Amino acid sequence: MIRSISAEWLKLRHSRIGLLLAVLPVVSLLIGCANYYANQGVLGNGWYSLWTQVSLFYGEFFLPILIAICCSYLARLEHVNRNWNMTMSSPVSPASVFFAKWFVAGLLILLAQILFVLLYWLAGNLLALEGGFPPETVGWIMRGWYASLAIGALQLALSLKMRSFATPIGICLCAVFAGLGFYVAKLGLFFPFSLLTIGMGVLSQNKLEGFQHVMFWVSSTGFILLFAAMSISRLKRKDIVS
């Protein structure tokens, strides 16, 4: 497993995925800050109001797309140059192949999350917001990351199945809007993209308590295991066409 993860990192050495990880959080934060600055008259809750603006663009749109791009890129490395033939004939289990890619995608998203929260802190100070930095931010970032792992498992399963780089990203974009529908219908705990909305406190900063808190972690874990099992089973049963 460790060797598989190391191999995935080596494949990323000459890629520009790091630039993408930096650009999308920066762009989403700039849009959110501009919106906050233009509407300070109605956004009077300081740090929390700023979070509603920056996390709306980042958590609802940019982050899911970033996850989809990372997963599509990791799978694309196998789809080109008949690399699947070498990968599946090597002494590495299908589970190791999937989880190595999923682990690397998760780590990349974690780096994006850390960058985003640092930019949020910097923006709040530049805007001279009153009050201290919200302690809830750590929870929002970590829950958002865990929900991202569920989305990553889904997107990676799609990307491993489809040779097209863009199609899984297009599916992700459609799922983003479906996730908003599930959230509005109070069914957000049963759809991975809605879990990201809930976890990051995008539309509501109310603290998760009791059943909702437990269900968030259970649902996220369940989606991770479900999509991982489906993808690994397919890798075991079907030949890859390079």
Topology readout:
Layout: H1 2-11, H2 17-38, H3 47-79, H4 83-89, H5 94-126, H6 136-161, H7 166-184, H8 192-199, H9 210-237
Main traits of this protein?
globular; about 0% strand; about 240 residues; mainly alpha
Structural class: mainly alpha
Distance between the termini: 23 Å
Which parts are unreliable, with pLDDT below 50 for 5 consecutive residues or more? Answer: none
Helix content: over 70%
Query: Using only CA atoms, what is the Rg?
Result: 19 Å
Give the overall shape.
Answer: globular
Number of domains: 1
Largest sheet: none
- Beta content: under 5%
- Please work out how many helical segments DSSP would assign: 9
Please provide the count of β strands: 0
Rounded average pLDDT: 87
Helices and strands, in order, run as HHHHHHHHH
Transmembrane segments: 17-37, 57-77, 98-123, 143-160, 172-194, 214-232
Pfam families: ABC2_membrane_4
Protein name: Multidrug ABC transporter permease
Keywords: Membrane, Transmembrane, Transmembrane helix
